[in-house]
Structure prediction request, 502 residues.
Amino acid sequence: MMTTRGTMAFDPNKIRLYVDHDLANGASVQLSRDQAHYLGTVMHKKAGDQVFLFNGHDGEWACDILHLDQKETVVRATHQSRPQQPAAPLTLMFAPLKHPAIDFLVQKATELGVTDLQPVLTDHTTTRRINSDHLGSIAMEAAEQCERLDIPTIHDPKDLMGLLSGDHAGSTIIYCDEGDNVPGMLTALKGLQSGPWVILVGPERGFSPTERATLRDQDNVMAVGLGPRILRADTAAVAALTMFQASLGDM
Amino acid sequence: MMTTRGTMAFDPNKIRLYVDHDLANGASVQLSRDQAHYLGTVMHKKAGDQVFLFNGHDGEWACDILHLDQKETVVRATHQSRPQQPAAPLTLMFAPLKHPAIDFLVQKATELGVTDLQPVLTDHTTTRRINSDHLGSIAMEAAEQCERLDIPTIHDPKDLMGLLSGDHAGSTIIYCDEGDNVPGMLTALKGLQSGPWVILVGPERGFSPTERATLRDQDNVMAVGLGPRILRADTAAVAALTMFQASLGDM
Prediction:
């Protein structure tokens, strides 16, 4: 792991866990069996050691381990180590991919700060289902490791055209285009400031001509290019998210 | 796969194969057994169909399949479809990682145009070996798919300190730093124009204090940050390569 110019010093021994409990001064939280196993067996922690919890809305809390065994592990919140900060909405819209590319994509998108992962069904989509539970656990683990204070939402797959006219009619959609004559992404993003934002990458075999024409017709869709090489869908997503965060977000 | 604003139109049916033969007008090339299997069994190609070959120095050649069966597959070069272009030297220096992160890193780095992959041994390196043959095949496949005309060289692992004073004493080393008070990478790269370039990312547990001090002491080393979240080593490599190519290279 790497860190960066943020306000946190990198501490490879710091353990952060996501919980579905309210967090406040003195709150006792019972951890799951998986978390107990991780703390005790994998990380060799014991009662009295410190662990950090976050739940997506109460910030991050330093907690003391009160009790740790295979049956029950309880920690108590001692102080808030970081306040919750509102996350700017950033959706990654992507066609479902095969393993391991989709796992990779969810992990990296979480590290790069997306708030919503929206699988889309397109004309050339070959994989139409996703395993939400599995991808959710990948997103949770990535959020725990990368110091963010929330977990991205993984939505059910929807048709691309329905999303354009429905849920995301008011978003600015950055469409990673497959054709010539589109500006590079860094250039295209210069000077733009209004969200909410969606980054859209296509399936392995690209968008259909109909889809491309429709996308280019929308006022809120901006076609951008990602360079001279042909990137895989998962690489394109990571590259686009990186450039977005470096230009408009927090990188 | 996605394409982009390059000069090539995206054709998902185009097959590109790397060969270790000279390529010229009318040259006959015998493909390997793996390539024959891929062409015939996976892609359902047959004699008379077209395939594209490249070898890292003669450009890309359109070829007709003369003969295709399990024992022997021969193609003949008909015309050069793209001339060879010199690749700007760009080395990714990285600590060996566990699977699947290292496979991913090699694949993505190839797509993002690195010419050299240099594993480095650092104080906190936990994995000290790499499987060069396996990583070479991943780089070759990524090069075939992403339309580049060469294949990155995968070097043997070396000690970080030796590389700094030896092979890369004359390079500008962009060091993805783990501390505070370093400029973001896009900012740091503005106005810089002289290579050869090295991008250096650390091992999972970061660089040691001694290594960090030494790195920051070198005149040719530039420390940069990659944003407020803690990125895994493989994510950091992809993000750094993306920003480099977008700023100074070809993205």
About this structure: Chain A has two domains: 16-82, 90-247. The first strand of chain A starts at residue 16 and ends at 18. The longest helix of chain A spans residues 132-146.
